[in-house]
Write a structure and sequence with these properties.
α1 packs antiparallel against α2. With 74 residues, the protein is mostly helical. It has one domain. The chain starts with a helix and ends with a helix. It is 76% helix and 0% strand. The protein has 2 helices and no strands.
Length: 74
């Protein structure tokens, strides 16, 4: 979860610097056509991670924890 917050902040900061003309995209960061296409691609990626992958992982973790707790004798 922290990785998502930091990643979104880094992407926002990078995009702001590119748009202002005070910086450029890092070489290691893949580009998708224009700046707008790149921003939309990464924003979509972060949205999928935030609203699909994280909830699925939390539900899976809760299921496994409940399954483990039910199988342990008290």
């Amino acid at each position: 979860m922290t990785t998502l917050v930091v990643g979104q902040w880094l992407l926002g900061t990078t995009v702001e610097r590119v748009v202002d003309g005070t910086g450029e995209f890092p070489v290691w960061l893949p580009h998708f056509g224009s700046i707008g296409q790149t921003v939309v691609a990464y924003a979509t990626l972060f949205d999928v991670l935030t609203f699909v992958v994280c909830p699925l992982l939390l539900v899976w973790f809760g299921y496994e924890l409940g399954r483990h707790a039910a199988s342990v004798e008290v």
